[in-house]
Specification:
Structural class: mainly alpha
Number of strands: 0
Shape: globular
Radius of gyration: 18 Å
Oligomer: single chain
Number of helices: 12
Distance between the termini: 32 Å
Strand content: under 5%
Largest sheet: none
Helix content: over 70%
């Protein structure tokens, strides 16, 4: 039972991270820097609790806020570029964060940052955050800002013609995505009780990308399903645990051939929307 709770907790954190990737993706920005933002949130929240004695919830929020501010700063040069160049920029950012963490003696440098207070209710906090994000994305999708995000992601030129402020939309999506990743990092740090730079390398950023593509990019339910499925499948199939990334690659190849839109299609989206709105009420969903 404890093992299943552990896997479910990690899955909840990965859902947050997948949604943090999906947020800028709504505006057409593909970021490989989410692991870097996760690292910032993890280290800042750990510093707050270990060094400064700040309680868990404010510490995690501060980690998210700091990551969001860094995301806003990084988003400024990101506005000028797109495609492969944006991937390289965010990839370089993630590596810079990791190298800084390796050399920062205040947080243990390459040896890692131990002694982080364990949060025994991490499962509840993780899925509480997931629920908040589901409500947020559900309401965002029907809002004026959400439609602006979708317009920018579909065609920037057309969005600009109809009056969408592309700069504001992209900056907001990028920084909010960084904030979500920072929150995920703070929750992760207080569950693991220890963080080190290798926990936030490029392979983890690629995992968050895979979760989103596998689940589906048409709506936020896709990243949620992708993170859940691709976290639990390797755990249940212990024989292939060490071949996890190879399994992900094979699944992506198959998905691109037979279902490029992802597992969550429009029919599934409508069904999930109906269930969610009936559960929470239309005024909340």
């Amino acid at each position: 039972m404890d093992y299943l709770i552990s896997v479910a907790t990690i899955a909840g954190i990965y859902i947050i991270m997948a949604l943090s990737f999906y947020m800028p993706f709504m505006t057409g920005q593909i970021s490989l820097g989410q692991a870097g933002f996760m690292a910032i949130g993890a280290y800042v929240s750990a510093i707050c609790t270990v060094k400064w004695g700040i309680p868990y919830v404010p510490a995690v929020l501060l980690g998210g806020i700091f990551a969001g501010i860094v995301g806003l700063i990084l988003g400024l040069p990101a506005l000028r570029i797109k495609g492969i160049y944006l991937l390289l920029l965010t990839l370089g950012f993630g590596e810079i964060v990791r190298v800084v963490a390796i050399n920062l003696k205040y947080t243990g440098a390459a040896e890692g940052f131990p002694g982080i207070p364990y949060q025994k209710y991490t499962l509840l906090y993780a899925y509480g955050m997931v629920l908040i994000l589901i409500i947020f994305f559900s309401r965002l999708r029907r809002s004026r800002m959400g439609r602006a995000f979708q317009a920018v992601g579909s065609d920037e030129d057309a969005a600009e013609i109809i009056g969408v402020n592309i700069v504001s939309a992209k900056l907001l999506a990028f920084s909010v995505g960084a904030f979500m990743a920072g929150i995920g990092g703070g929750i992760f740090a207080h569950y693991q009780e220890y963080v080190e730079p290798l926990m936030f390398d490029i392979m983890h950023a690629i995992e968050f990308l895979i979760f989103t593509i596998f689940g589906g990019i048409q709506i936020f339910w896709g990243p949620i399903f992708g993170a859940l499925a691709l976290t639990f499948i390797p755990e249940f199939l212990r024989a292939i645990q060490e071949w996890r990334m190879e399994l992900y690659g094979a699944l992506l190849i198959v998905m691109m051939i037979i279902r490029p839109q992802g597992v969550i299609g429009l029919d599934t989206v409508r069904a999930l929307d109906r269930l969610f709105r009936n559960a929470l009420g239309k005024e909340w969903a």
